[in-house]
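Feature request disguised as a bug report, sorry. It would help if multi-protein outputs had a clear separator. Right now it looks like this:
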Amino acid sequence: MKNNKNLTHQLSPEKKVIPSKIRTITFVLEITLILILLAVWFSSESIRESKNLWIFFFYSFPAEFLIAVVPHEPVLLYFSKFYSPLAVTLVALAGTLLAEIINYSVFKYVGDLKPFSKVRHTKWVSKTIEFFNKAPFMALLVAGFTPMPFYPFRFLVVLARYPLPKYVLAIFLSRTPRFYLLALFGHIFKIPDYLFPVVFIALAIPLAYPLLRSLLKKTKRNRRDAT
């Protein structure tokens, strides 16, 4: 019996290492996928001008990844000129749901790391989680349907240990009507091509603002430390 117990104790660390390795490999592959799609989008003019719905599907991943660096709406409106609102909605929804599952997986991996696991127990984060838990599903529905920034909720659902199936359901119920209304607008009014770069930049600035602000703060801090 003692030998069996010793054997179990010897094997248990290996059993823990294997899932950890799988999670790490999955995390790296998810990040790599998004970076490749983003690089391909910016490096190929023919892809950016393509009217193939597969292009729109894959664009949804970087456009909905954590704090997105590219806006989703202008491309959705562009494809709405050539396809029915329903077709555009279904493609946008499929890409978005898969992207949100990746978001959940990525942030859960990061959140489980020791330096970040302590964040959940800080006073400000604890209060935010407590407030969110009063009506989490309704909060996700409102955030998913309205133009308000959605990326804080991607982090919050993981910090609050909100179940992935409920999160995906909230995304489905909120994004479906939002995407359809945008696609219907784009299909009816057919925005001229020359306006899309303006719309794209106008929507990209708020998305990039948190990242730029963080970089500027870090640069100023480094300069202070250097002096």
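(second protein starts here, but nothing in the output says so)
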Amino acid sequence: MDKLIFDGRKVTISNDGATIMKLLDIAHPAAKTLVDISMSQDAEVGDGTTSVVLIAGEMLNAVKGFIEDGVHPQVVIRAVRQACRLAVEKVEEMAVPFEGEKGREMLLKCAGTALNSKLIAGQQDLFAPMVVEAVSGLKSDLSDLR
């Protein structure tokens, strides 16, 4: 993260969404909620802060019309939860098992891609196998993480 002074104001330049979100001075309650979502994502996962804000923003945009039309918020959230369940079911249906040597190679590529935007991007060959080994050691039924 770079900080510089421009025209008497401090300017922060960063490709880290969490850093940008922390610096925003927001008054709107919905926008504050998006910042909170971003901070939660950063605390729990350490990545994906921009993605969760964009997804949450699009979800809010999608349901806005229903609220404006007088649909009760409980009905809207019930529908959103049902859509979430359907989406998870579809992803599970489409999931491809990563087994054997071919699966390990694919996991190494995925780990390398995920590490590409991090400070350790230059050390992918060292860290990607560590990540795959750590994930491979997890129990296969992760249903308690939902």
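Even a blank line would do. Unrelated, but nice: The CA atoms of residues 77 and 83 lie 10 Å apart.
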